[in-house]
Specification:
mainly alpha, 8 helices, 4 strands, about 55% helix
Length: about 280
Amino acid sequence: MLKSNETSQVDPSQFMVYSPVQTYNSSMIINQNPQEPAPQKKYKSIFARFFIIQDGVISVSLRDQTIILSALISISLIVMGYFSCHNNDFECDLHDFPMVSTVIALPMYDRTFIILTTIMMFGVQQVNIRAFYKKLYGIIPDKQNDNMFNLGVVSCFALPLIGVFDEHKWGTIHGICAIAFFGCFGVYCVMLGNYLSANKDKFNPAESHSIDKMKQGSRVIVVLLAALLLSFIFYHSKVPTPLIEWAVVLYYSNFFAIASYANGFYDSVHQDGTLIKP
């Protein structure tokens, strides 16, 4: 509280002058340099690495989505195969092994397969196909790019339909969908690897190694498809056909996860010249 104390002084005219002196109660003293609280550590969302924002555009990391969903589908298929053998639904040895189509026809496995492949095909796969279409746009003739794109789109529709049409009840349609998926996506992968490899000098030098891997990967697909076709002709659904089919399905499921390192991806949603690296 503000108080006044009287003090006396003598001015040059010999008059006594009284002047109040202001003092402050100690409780009123204000600390001019208060200690600032320590800055709190900001919480960072676990999803922060999956996207970036620039100029009002939210760019989602297609690479991370592709890897996660590819791994999820691969693990799910392996788990289905394991439990179908463990529960004695099928004979599982080197002489007799179930085809992928036979496993996913089991109750609940069919629903799981349809849900996961639908999310994968229309949430991630078609975006990868469009991203590579944009990447090759103007580098290869439009007709070649369009043909490759159309093959990729057909494969996106075909894979979930393999699970929708049970091989036991809808055998013919199931077979057509399987041929459409394996054939169209196989040709797409080979074309993509060839086009990228033939025009490697037109891309960022940092992508050269990834493009080489994609080219090698397309050769692996040719070998696997040829082996699957020959095995099916001579052995039908007997071993080694099921084992080769499992290898093809798992490789197909992870193709874009491998190919993701040959594309910046964000350039598919930003204008040219504003490429954003993940």
